[in-house]
Write a structure and sequence with these properties.
Low-confidence stretches: 1-8
Mean pLDDT: 87
Order of helices and strands: HHHHHHHH
Radius of gyration: 18 Å
Number of strands: 0
Largest sheet: none
Number of helices: 8
Helix content: 55-70%
Strand content: under 5%
Length: 207
Amino acid sequence: MNDTSPPIPEHLSPRQGELIMFENNRFLERMSRMRPTTVLAVYLPAIAAATYLCIAGGTGLFLTLGLVLAGVAFWTIFEYFFHRFFFHFNATTPLQHKILFTIHGVHHQYPNDKDRLVMPISVSIPLAILFGLLFVSTMGQKGWGFFAGFGIGYVSYDMIHYAVHHVQNSKLALFRRVKRHHMAHHYRDTRQGFGVSSYFWDRVFRT
């Protein structure tokens, strides 16, 4: 990243405060907001259950641990590509710009809105079911271990994303580097720095 980066598009320019997205629909407005504690309450039991299913299905403890670690590693590259190509797809029509704003632009425009820093479970649960079915259908019972690691990666992503926006003056050097990396994505160039929980793939792909 460099100081000659092009300006942030207007629809993504950061502002203070928060936004009411669905003024005439209280239910949709509520579903567009989510606290990190809700993510933990939903996914930590699911991760534990998936780990148990993997072991109970005949997978040894050490192989299960390896599958979990592989799932975490897979999450990191999924996170990078999902953020880069889905959350920042190249919108060319008014409808596409509206979709882009709804799914991610609102976060860029109001980056410190504490209720829109983690993905709503109305979106993440269907995606989790889809990936769980995919992993189990391709790997059998071992897929549960891989899914548990993928879930750990996702929960870590949500918690780190919340922390980099709201934790100040951390003494952890690695956290400060992750925070600087993500803030540069928000305030310097939204076409760079797509990793949130890790900047490893940004270095690999030179973004």
